[in-house]
# Entry
Amino acid sequence: MNKLKIDEQIKTNLFSTDNQTVILALGRIKQQGNRLYIPVLFDMLKAGPEPEIETEIKNLLGTVKDKESVNSFMRALEDENYKSIRKSILVACWQNGLDFSTFLPVFVDLVISEEWEVAFEAFTIIDNLEFLPGNEIIRISENKIHEALPSVSEQTKYFLHEILKKIR
# Structure
């Protein structure tokens, strides 16, 4: 496999003031499929780009197929600096169909602790898991759920009960 690296011209074009230049750069990333751009795309989303650019970035993140990029998505989800775009990251996670099963406890935490829209997106990822993680990860997740149940809202309780059904 070739050693991946960021093309500095593409990176420069991503931050152009000309929307068409940015869209062309995003198209090149989609064509090349380089996962190293994912953190740059998260930074762009966080900066609040023009709606047209935001849509292109979200579409691109939703089509990522490189299994090695799972860690980039998870680092961003766990990073408080990206809290403002957490919902968008979660939407991209369930759209791209990558296997996030080993991170089940992280998604459970998001269901428990986040506001409704973000919790719903985390729940959607869990609900759409194609494969369940190993028993240890399931046990950790079940413990988190049982600990949280007495003190969460009715909506969150519903999500947590549905998760328990899925992972048992």
